[in-house]
Structure formats: structure tokens, C-alpha cells
Amino acid sequence: MRLALIHDWMNQFGGAEVVLEQLVALFPDAPIYTSIYDPQAMPATWRRWDIRPSWMNRLPLVKKYHQPFLPLYPLVFEGLDLSHYDIVLSNKSGFCHGVITPPQTLHICYCLTPTRYVWRHHDYLRREGVGRLTRALLAPLLSYLRLWDRLAADRVDQFIAISSEIQRRIAKYYRRESQIIYPPVDTHRFIPADGYDDYFLVVGRLVPYKRIDLAVRACTALGLPLKVGGSGRDLARLKAMAGPTVEFLGRVPDHLLPGLMARCKAFLFPGDEDFGITPVEAMAAGRPVIAYAGGGVLDTVIEGQTGILFGEQNVESLIAALQRFDPDAYDPSAIRRHAEQFDTSVFRQRIRDYVMQAYEEH
Question: Are 185 and 341 in contact (CB under 8 A)?
Fold first, then answer.
């Protein structure tokens, strides 16, 4: 069985790349086709992989500033020759599901999200602070990309969604059914502690859409100790609104994160994410999560058992959740057991079984 992996771009590391690492572990002989690849920006271990970047990789500045090359991605992925593979598995948040495969090839798309800045462009452009003139200039391009993206989805034989929220978007935008297989979380890195310390915790990239400002403002208003882990362009704004009980840790090293999570009162997650890995990591460390009731946490956080969900994405709603939160009402062992269903081993087994069954049926 000849299998190829398709990935949007490889010049930054995030949730999509965590998934890719597990797919490579599952299918170590599979080549990886992508638009661009910057070895300096990716883990050194990846240099042992069979990575095949496109002609786009030779364009000036593309590895550092890939967004301005948006119109070229459909051309890149449609131009890949995948005719000699039995299975193509695309790991998609952008345009890589648009590859063209022959009838005998099975194309499975692991969909992290329908292309966010194409289908939810109003929210995306607002968060990024894009001006009216730029929005007007982008409008025709986005209309073209929406049409292309919708037609490209018809080329996929089977969709896998990472959460119920993404399953709904696939049905809405692509008019396709999908099966849910949750992304991999390395729960074995995290171990519950024998107690907790007097602080709340929020960890993530400090960018506006993460809504870490809600955690900072709510804890400042209530005088609650909050530790903020992460770095990003929103740091100055967050510091300006923070009171004396808020501590900014900067980027938290991987080896320190498990202990930091295991000792917090609760992990705060005020953003709206497609899945949300950090809440699951906190639960693997035995700690409850206080999260906005939207996106992927609706699949991972159980109200009253593994945390609290607040209904409105504003400070008042988060304050109300913090005021009713009782850290002693939760069993760390039970929270840990719940998190284990999202472990990497579960992901690998489910993906393997899905691919084998789909190939047999195909």
C-alpha cells in the first residue's frame, strides 16, 4: 500500500504539526508533500523525513511571509502528481485538500478546520486589525478562494473532523459528512499532584483571538492570582490591563509545563478553538478547566465533572464562573481518566483502523 501525506506548509509549528508528527509515526515510509518547507523553523528531527516541497519553496521571502502568496496555493496543490499512490492523507487547515487524485486513489482528509480566513473572514480580518481598504481589495480574492475551496472539497473521498464544531462546519461549508477522530494529546507527560497552589493558569500564544484578555481582566477585578504563560504580540496590551495579582511568565519550557498545570487551582481557557489541546493537558494533570462554552471544549470539558463552562465570551460571564468555582469539588483522578481518551495512542489506533477500513471499502 503506497501512501502519501499532504500538509499545507512547514514554516511554523502549531497544532497541525503535532498531528503531522503522529501521522509520520504511523506511516514512517510515507513521503510528505507540502507547499513550503523551512528546515530552520521546524524541529531538527524532521530533517530525516522525506519532505517534498513544491516549486513555491524557491520564491523569495515565501518561507517567512507566506500569507501574501495566498492566491498561489490552489495552483501548488493542484499541480502535485500523486497518480502512483493508493492512499493520500491530507492534514488540512488551508488548501492541501485540493490535490487532484486519480479514481483509483483514496483521498482521506483529516480536517483541522475548513479554511478559517476564507469562510470566517469577517472574524479573522477584525481580529487582525485589517483596515477597510485592505478588506475591499481582498473581497474578490476571498470570493474566488471560497468557490475554489468548496469545489476542492468534492475531490475528497472521506472527511475526518477533529471535533463536533469542525464536523458542523464541514457539513455547513462543504455539504459533506464526516467522522470525528480527536487530535492527539500526549497525556503521559502530565501527572496529577497531591494538591494545588493558590493560582489560576492560562497558557497560549498571546494574540488577540485567544482572548487571554478576559482572564487577565477577570482575575484583576476579583483580585485572584493568575499566571500567564506564553509570548506574542498582545503582551504589551495585556500587561497594561493587568493588576498586581497577574504574573507574566513568558514562554514556558516544555519540561516545566506539566508541574505548572498540576499545581494550579484551575486552568482558564477563554478562547474559541477548533479543538483546544491545552485544556486536555490540564485535565491530564488532574486539574479542572474553566472555559468558554464554544468550539472544541464542548467535546472535552464536562460541566461539573471536569470543569465549568461560561456561556458568554465576556468578562462578566467569566467572573461569574470564577465566583461559583470550588476547586475541592473535583476529583483529580477522575479528571485524569477523562483526559486519557484523547491520548496519542488512541489517536493512532483510530486513524490506523479508519484508513485500513476505508481502503478496503474503496
Answer: no
Q: Compute the Cα dihedral for 231, 225, 266, 193 and give only its sign.
A: positive
Q: Is the pLDDT of residue 125 over 70?
A: no
Residues 158 and 145 sit within 8 Å (Cβ to Cβ): no
**For residue 36, is pLDDT > 70?**
yes
- Residue 264 CA to residue 275 CA, distance in Å, equals 22
Sequence-distant (≥ 6) Cβ neighbours of residue 319 within 8 angstroms? 218, 221, 222
Sign of dihedral through CA atoms 67, 72, 74, 78? negative
pLDDT bracket for residue 127 (50, 70, 90) = low
Cβ–Cβ < 8 Å for 327, 288: yes
Average pLDDT, the chain: 94
Summarised one tens digit per residue, pLDDT across range 288-335 is 999 999 999 999 999 999 999 999 999 999 999 999 999 999 999 999
Longest dimension (CA), the chain: 63
Strand ranges inside 184-266, DSSP E? 200-203, 226-229, 246-250
DSSP annotation of 3: E
Query: What SS3 string covers 258-277?
Result: HHHHHCCCCEEECCCCCCCH
The grid coordinates listed for 92 are 488540512
Residues listed for the chain? 362
> Distance between CA atoms of 257 and 255, rounded to whole angstroms?
6
Query: What is the reported pLDDT for 324?
Result: 96
Judged by DSSP in three states, 234 sits in coil
- Specify whether the CB–CB gap between 267 and 276 falls below 8 A: no
Distance CA 146, CA 124 (A): 15
Residue 301: strand, helix, or coil:
coil
Please state, in angstroms and rounded to a whole number, the distance separating the CA atoms of residues 220 and 281. 25
Q: How many CA atoms lie within 13 A of 16 on its CB side?
A: 23
**pLDDT tens sequence across 188-209:** 999 999 999 999 999 998 988 8
Q: Count other C-beta atoms under 10 Å from residue 285's C-beta.
A: 27
Residue 77 and residue 91 in contact, taking contact as beta carbons nearer than 8 Å: no
